[in-house]
Amino acid sequence: MDRRGQQHYPGEPKAGYVAPWDETPEWERHSAAAVYQLVTELLRISEGAARRLTRVQKSQFVAASWTAQIFLRIDNPKPAYVAPWEALPTWQQEVDADIFESIERVEPQAD
Asked: What is the pTM of this model?
């Protein structure tokens, strides 16, 4: 979670939530890169139409992508790590939507 994500978190986030990229565990950096790639691929194959998803749909896509990475990289993840989107705290749902929208801003529009 970057500083923008802190706007959604109630209180003071855990240090791991706001760790600098270089201090983030390698598996987490790889997972974040994979989620970024999945969002960019969705934007590409939908010819940009994915930009019209609602914030909830964008958040759900990021959450599902992240959950898939958890299953890929952790043998027996804690249930909280793979909770369905509806069970995530509101702050996490908002951060996931922010992640999608941040990627949208840096990816070129489809012609």
From this structure: 0.85
